[in-house]
Amino acid sequence: MPPVPAHFTSRIAELEALDSAAARQEGDPVDRSPAVTVVVGPGGVGKTALAITWAVRNAGRFPAGQLYADLRGFSPETALPPEDALGAFLRALGVPPERVPIGLAEQTALFRTITAGLRLLLVVDNAISAAQVRPLIPASSGCVVVVTSRLRLDGLHAEGARFVDMAPLPQEHAVELLERSVGKSRVAAELSDVTALATLCGRLPIALRVAGARLASRPKWPVARMVAELRDERGRLAKLSPVGEASLTATFDSSYAALPPHAARLYRLISEHPGQAIEVGVAVAAVRVPEDEAADGLQVLADASLLEEVGEGSYRFHDLVRLHAKSLPDEERFDVVPRIADWYLHRMTRANMVVIPMRWRVSTVRARYEDSTPLFDTGAEALRWLDERLPDIVEVLEETFALGDDELTWQLCEALWELFMYRKHYQRWIRTHEIGIAAAHRCSHAVAEARLRCQLARAYLDLERFEAAEHECSKAAELARGAGSRHNESVALDQLGMAAQGLGDFERAVEFFSESLVIEGELGIDRGVALRHRRIGEALLQAGRTADAVRHLRLAQEMFLEIGDVKAEVRVCVALALIGARAGEITAAKRELERAAAVFAESGSPVYQAEVQVAFAEVAEFEGDFDAVRLRLTQALELCGPVGGPLVERVQARLEALPARPDRPQPPESATAQ
């Protein structure tokens, strides 16, 4: 065996998996085949170190000895033929060189004869195929074979093989490996920089070992100096290459060279995806091939340990592998980000059409799917997809803006509306819309800029930053009038009304809502008319004009029912239920709130669900049932707490203002004694 690596760290689960495979074989009187375990992972992840460490620690379990062969499957040199490895094994087992057969079949037969009944450990390193390994497997059930490979050698499953996947080290163990290299005191003094260094090394043991060696040999260097060097992606792979050994680049080159052409092209191009998650649809967009070919290519890359499979049909790059893929020449790579952005735009639009079917959009993408079968069965399912992809969508949006593709940028931003309305994500909401507005302005699309300013203003309204909302809506109204966009002007007026309402100017709010209502009526947008009646009703209710408020709310409810917008209709129901509860109609109010709760439970919006719970708490307060008030407010807090915002603060304040629960009576002393 080669020597045990000096700074081998962690890998407890992987070592236990090897222990389990060997123990299973020892305790199975029926299975007479040797135990075969394949350790799979990318180059530099520490597969060989794991196999050697386990072999040395378990040497006593194999009295007949240990055999090691490096099959050089991913070496720049020619892979070692199995007959060469088998010949070396036979000589190591005492067969005179002149007695070693020339042919592979004869060698295999002799090897199995000699090893019959022996307890022998074999480490077969760097295999590239099952065919390269199969002749090296003894016949004895007392033998254990540990194979390492960057490929998932599925062909060895027929030999009873188990598979152990190796990923980069967890962050804490990556820091521990650096600590062993450079010393505890140095790590303790510069822990934040050491943590950053571990991240820049991708938590790959080979890269961590190189970084640790460089720092250990330069005791006067602050760790921050090396962190600064590695932040430059262009030279990172070269700086993390072991001196006198195959570089990281060469390690990845050898894996890349073994790929079939379609997978190699996918490897080069998909590295341009700015996000982390790579699904089949993204791959199809990046390389413009049929779905089955893209899916096959992704699986080939995963089998070669160049991608990590993180879910069904979802993959991701290791950071250093991505750098290698991006360094490979391909003129087509400059087209990839716009292709992926366009794919996301179409997918997001189709999701949004399920969440809010009747919403007007500036982007013309929706028109392509008017007569198409919905992509998602429910709005909640569509929101779940949007929410899961949000980090990648934001990365793509930022990249399209950096590349100057302003049309795509503002359309991606507009398509985030449904998700942000239901799930909020305020920080990303504001950040993406600042970018989207800048893109629309840069390409002189006044209608899109007005639209996005209104969408940004809605975030400010939710956060009760009413002056900021007024600023955005005033600018949006000005842009809309200049562009002749009556629809956008109406939206801006509507939100100016909401800002005025938030500032307590209910009369001015009703004026803005009424102006917007007229425009919606002129445009023939029934949903818009209904929504403005709801807004007017809510403002009048706050102003204390209950009878006038009910009239507008009832009209809104009837219109929403007529056009089939159930979610909008039950939002009106919540307001009407509270009005009824104040008038003593408690049972009817609860019934309406139960209906609203059922609708919002399917909506995928925790905020809407929380608002219903707050309404339930208000009804319970009318009844004087403070236990129910506390329960409902607690449930509301659980729903909206992760979202944040003023609603959370209001619910917390109401909970704190509740009268304390009376102490429960203590049991009598006699009962306590018993």
Q: State the CATH superfamily name of the largest domain.
A: P-loop containing nucleotide triphosphate hydrolases
- What is the CA-CA span between the terminal residues? 70 Å
Could you tell me the CATH topology label of the largest domain.
Answer: Rossmann fold
Query: Any idea how many domains?
Result: 6
- Count of discrete alpha- or pi-helical segments spanning 4 or more residues: 33
Radius of gyration: 33 Å
Q: What is the name of the CATH class of the largest domain?
A: Alpha Beta
Main sheet overview:
5 strands, parallel
User: Which structural class fits the helix and strand makeup?
Assistant: mainly alpha
pLDDT under 50 segments (min length 5)?
Answer: 664-674
Tell me roughly what share of residues is in helical segments.
55-70%
Mean pLDDT across residues: 88
3D shape: elongated
Short description:
It contains 33 helices and eight strands. It is mostly helical.
Overview features:
5% strand, Arc Repressor Mutant, subunit A, 674 residues, TPR_rpt, 63% helix, TPR-like_helical_dom_sf, three-stranded antiparallel sheet, P-loop_NTPase, 6 domains, mainly alpha, 33 helices, TPR repeat, elongated, Rossmann fold, five-stranded parallel sheet
